[in-house]
Specification:
single chain; alpha+beta; 1 helix; globular
């Protein structure tokens, strides 16, 4: 069986989702990543802090929490 390429990677270091070392919410792969931003997923607390520092240096800190990258978006808006 061929390995499926990971479409998702850490935006700071490039570590693929499902790779050893990637942090998951409650340590469960099915729960999704433990860290993410409006620009993508982050693999660890270290990359999360690095991302925050980089965004602060750019003056581009988000003003509100980013949506869950794996949450199903509704096709219908009310």
């Amino acid at each position: 069986m061929l390995a499926r390429p990971d479409a998702y990677r850490c935006i700071e270091c490039g570590l693929p989702y499902r790779a050893t070392g990637f942090w998951y919410h409650e340590s469960k792969l099915d729960n999704g990543p433990a860290y993410w931003s409006d620009r993508g997923m982050l693999c660890s607390p270290q990359c999360s802090l690095a991302h925050h520092k980089n965004r602060a240096a750019e003056g581009m800190l988000p003003q509100e929490p980013a949506p869950d990258p794996f949450a199903v978006q509704s096709l219908f808006r009310r």
